[in-house]
Specification:
Helix content is 79%, strand content 0%. It is an all-alpha fold and 197 residues long.
C-alpha cells in the first residue's frame, strides 16, 4: 500500500474515531443528565464557557490537529441550543486561529530577512491574498478537510489586516459548526432507542 493511500486510510479511521467519540460522549451526557435533577439552563453558561475554551485552545495549535473539542461541542449541542453552541465555538475557534496568523507575521520577517530572494514569491502571495483573501479564508474555515492553519500563516505573512482575517474565519467556522451541531443534535435523536438507553 503506497503512502498516499495509508494517509487517506489513517485520516478516515481518525475521522470515524472522532465521530464515535462524539456519539459516545453525547450518549453518556444524555443518559446521565436526567440523574442530576437540575434544569438544563442552570448549566448552559458553563457549557458555553467550556465549548468556548476548548475550541480556543484546540484552534490555537498550529498544524497539529487537536479535534477533541469537536466531540465536546457536538455533545453539548445535543442538550443546549445548537446554534448558540456553534456561535460560541466559532468565536473561540476564530480567536484561537490568531496564533497561526501571528506565526505567519513573525515567520515572514525571519524568512525575508534570511532569504531575500524569497521576496519574489512572497510578493505574489501578498497580491493574491489581497485580491482573494476573504474568499480563501472563508473556504478554508468552512470546509472541514482543508488545513486552516496554512491559510492563517499565509494571511499573517501577507500582512492581511486582522479584521480581514477574523471576519471570514468566523463566518466560515460558524457555518461549519452550525451545520455540524444541528445535524448531530437531530441525528442523535434518530438513533435507535436501545443505543440511547
Amino acid at each position: 500500500m503506497n503512502s498516499s493511500r495509508k494517509r487517506w486510510l489513517r485520516g478516515i479511521i481518525f475521522m470515524l474515531g472522532m465521530v464515535g467519540l462524539s456519539v459516545a460522549l453525547a450518549l453518556l451526557l444524555k443518559s446521565f443528565w436526567p440523574h442530576f435533577d437540575v434544569e438544563n439552563e442552570q448549566f448552559a453558561s458553563l457549557a458555553y464557557l467550556v465549548v468556548f475554551a476548548s475550541t480556543l485552545v484546540a484552534n490555537a495549535t498550529i498544524i497539529v490537529p487537536a479535534p477533541v473539542h469537536a466531540a465536546m461541542m457536538l455533545a453539548a449541542a445535543t442538550i443546549w441550543n445548537p446554534i448558540i453552541i456553534a456561535l460560541v465555538a466559532s468565536i473561540g475557534g476564530s480567536l484561537g486561529e490568531l496564533s497561526g496568523y501571528y506565526a505567519g507575521r513573525v515567520g515572514q520577517k525571519i524568512i525575508l530577512g534570511t532569504y531575500p530572494l524569497a521576496y519574489l514569491g512572497y510578493s505574489r502571495v501578498v497580491s493574491w491574498m489581497d485580491k482573494r483573501g476573504f474568499l480563501t479564508i472563508f473556504l478554508f474555515a468552512s470546509i472541514p478537510i482543508l488545513p486552516f492553519d496554512v491559510a492563517g500563516v499565509i494571511a499573517g505573512g501577507a500582512r492581511l489586516p486582522v479584521w480581514k482575517f477574523l471576519l471570514p474565519c468566523w463566518l466560515g467556522k460558524f457555518l461549519k459548526y452550525a451545520v455540524f451541531c444541528y445535524a448531530f443534535s437531530v441525528g442523535i435523536v434518530l438513533l435507535p432507542g436501545w443505543i440511547q438507553s
